[in-house]
């Protein structure tokens, strides 16, 4: 049985007669902060805010220096160093401004609580003038005009911070915008399929039923290729019962005894698809859960991707190694590359 009172009993709940309305208790007594009573603490807080703005300025300068003097390059080490410096500079630039604003508001600006009655949506002229007056009082209360160093630090930080976004955007002008390069990878006729990352060529006899291999071109060890070219060439290869394959007429002969190879670059936003489910032959992208059916041309069966994964035509050479018949016959990666070309 419920022990909660009904709405009709609420005024006498617990044997006490409760009033129909409650008096507004108003604001509690205002507690002065140390910066309100101690001029030395107030000055110290101001210096701390200036220091935080200075951190923002240093961070933005670090970002710009790293962008100009430490480019990503073509190696993993250079990319890691560049990304670390850019990320650190961007973090300090944004964090310094945010922390300074919070610390300024909590220690130097007026913290008296005020209550304004709610009026109609269309205020009177008197109300509008009162609002303008309140804004002017708030600006005066911030004491920006009398804090020259703080004002200079704030405006410097705010002026420099947008450069973290503007400079990289401007730097893209004049770059190579030839998007047709995304139509091709370094796969070509006769290139052996090799295990990633060891680079060891794979024999067809090694690929057992139900197994999956992460694959790269075997010629990566013999030739120098930029990292972006290597990233475009990643492939997932699986072997299934040939009777489970549903091959289009124009793709018959692209597989070898149930072994199929597809690009690992998701056609949604380019994440690496690598989670293979043996029983269903489904391949899952971990980023946004796009799911592809490798038994049916890697068609999309779930998720935001809107086209199948490109298939790499494969066969075997005279020594039994799996090799590519050609490059992919369509652009790899997100669908927008295909639409732009």
From TrEMBL:
Cite the record's Polar residues compositional bias ranges. Answer: 1-11
Record membrane topology = Multi-pass membrane protein
In this protein, which residues make up the domain named Rieske?
A: 259-323
Key words, A-Z = 2Fe-2S, Cell membrane, Disulfide bond, Electron transport, Iron, Iron-sulfur, Membrane, Metal-binding, Oxidoreductase, Respiratory chain, Transmembrane, Transmembrane helix, Transport
An example molecular function term from Gene Ontology annotations: 2 iron, 2 sulfur cluster binding
SUPFAM superfamilies recorded for this chain?
ISP domain
Report the subcellular localization: Cell membrane
> What stretches pass through the bilayer?
49-70, 82-105
Top-level taxon in the UniProt lineage:
Bacteria
Identify the InterPro entries for this entry. Answer: QcrA_N, Rieske_2Fe-2S, Rieske_2Fe-2S_sf, Rieske_Fe-S_prot
One GO location term (cellular component): plasma membrane
Family, as annotated = Belongs to the Rieske iron-sulfur protein family.
Name it. Answer: Cytochrome bc1 complex Rieske iron-sulfur subunit
Lineage runs: Bacteria, Bacillati, Actinomycetota, Actinomycetes, Micrococcales
């Amino acid at each position: 049985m419920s022990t909660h009172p009904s709405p009709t009993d609420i005024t006498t709940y617990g044997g006490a007669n409760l009033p129909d309305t409650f008096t507004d208790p108003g604001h509690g007594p205002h507690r002065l902060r140390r910066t309100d009573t101690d001029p030395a603490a107030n000055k110290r807080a101001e210096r701390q805010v200036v220091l935080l703005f200075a951190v923002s300025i240093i961070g933005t300068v670090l970002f710009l220096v790293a962008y100009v003097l430490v480019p990503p390059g073509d190696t993993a080490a250079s990319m890691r160093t560049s990304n670390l410096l850019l990320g650190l500079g961007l973090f300090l630039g944004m964090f310094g401004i945010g922390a300074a604003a919070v610390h300024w508001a909590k220690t130097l600006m007026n913290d008296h609580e005020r209550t304004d009655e709610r009026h109609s949506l269309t205020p009177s002229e008197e109300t509008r003038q009162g609002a303008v007056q309140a804004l002017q009082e708030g600006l005066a209360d911030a004491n920006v005009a009398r804090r020259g160093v703080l004002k200079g630090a704030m405006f410097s930080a705010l002026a420099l911070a947008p450069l973290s976004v503007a400079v990289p955007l401007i730097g893209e002008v004049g770059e190579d915008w030839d998007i047709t390069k995304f139509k091709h990878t370094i796969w070509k006729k006769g290139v052996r399929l090799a295990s990633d990352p060891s680079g060891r060529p794979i024999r067809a006899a090694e690929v057992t039923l139900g197994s999956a291999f992460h694959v790269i071109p075997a010629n990566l060890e013999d030739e120098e290729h930029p990292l972006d070219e290597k990233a475009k060439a990643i492939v997932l290869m699986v072997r299934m019962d040939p009777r489970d394959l549903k091959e289009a007429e124009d793709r018959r002969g692209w597989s070898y005894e149930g072994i199929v190879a597809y690009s690992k670059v998701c056609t949604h936003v380019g994440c690496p698809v690598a989670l293979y489910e043996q029983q269903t032959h489904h391949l899952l992208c971990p980023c946004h859960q796009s799911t592809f059916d490798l038994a049916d041309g890697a068609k999309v069966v779930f998720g935001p991707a809107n086209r199948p994964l490109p298939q790499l035509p494969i066969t075997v050479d005279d020594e039994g190694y799996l090799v590519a018949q050609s490059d992919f016959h369509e652009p790899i990666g997100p669908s927008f590359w295909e639409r732009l070309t």
